[in-house]
From TrEMBL:
SUPFAM superfamilies: Thermophilic metalloprotease-like (SSF144052)
Origin species: Paenibacillus monticola
GO biological process, one term: proteolysis
Protein name: Aminopeptidase
Cofactor(s) this protein cannot do without: Zn(2+); Mg(2+); Co(2+)
Family: Belongs to the peptidase M29 family.
Amino acid sequence: MMDPRIQKLAKNLVSYSVNVQPGENVLVEMIGSERDLIKAVVEEIGKAGGHAFVQLTDRTVLRSMLKYATRESLQTWAEIDLNRMKQMDGYIGIRAGENVNDLSDIPEENMKLYNSLYSHPVHSEQRVKHTKWVVLRYPNASMAQLANVSTEAFEDFYFQVCNLDYAKMDRAQDALADLMRRTDKVHISGTGTDITFSIKGIGAEKCSGQKNIPDGEVYSAPIRDSVNGTISYNAATLYNGITFENVKFTFENGKIVEASSNDTVRLNDILDSDDGARHIGEFAIGFNPYILHPMKDILFDEKIAGSLHFTPGQAYEETDNGNRSSIHWDLVLIQRPEYGGGEIYFDDILIRKDGLFVIPELEGLNPENLK
């Protein structure tokens, strides 16, 4: 008998996140070996009158493909999958790999080609911009290890987070989205961080379960050349299977002019992928009440209560500052007291301190009001 929590999640993905309508084509991609959720999702798409198409991917096989990939093979691969994506109305991506470091020893040049020739056109340009999509992880022993808890405890945490009342969260986000749309100057301060920029005229978008599960953020983007100062991120992050810690950026007129981490050479190699990689494409504030600590999984970490992320690379079309890049790397700064605290000011007014919103219209996004 299938776990009822899986059935509830599948129904939410199909009916709420992607809102599948009769006759719509939906690509369901599973990276990993889990099958119960994907079967439940396919059944829910069928019940909604949609057409499910399934892609099963093994990350160890993907590793072998990328190890010997060439420019020509990646272009052909992208052409095939781009044609399929263009025929889709929706996309549900489920990730459940056993080893987050499976791609860590792929040659850097191959990963850059994969990101620019395959991932960027197929996902960043087509899937993100032209389908109703949602992406999520699925709990397994590997994720539990990253979270430093037992597999059973992580499963309980996962379903608590993923089956949250996202419609309630959506309503609570209205005030923050409206405020960000009216804001010009942003000032972020904290341990090793003092940074200013403008979001005037860029807009803001709510994230409440329609694009990611788990969810819980409102995002915008800085005016491309307005960023000045230094930011020190305090959540470890994975990029192309490599762990980066203590990432620190210094900006001058929008450009990252200094970058350091535990692997400064590789960090700068990524930032040199193209011109847009040294500029910021997203600024977002996270507030999922159940996600408190980083686990090197960005779909969870960028939603941490009391966090923000400041993202080098491609801007989203909905809050477009004109930045274009083959990368989009969400890097997270947690500002709750146990992580060093910090402040966010909008037009010189303190709106969040030590991870909690301090003006009345935003208090609905504090943890006690979202659980």
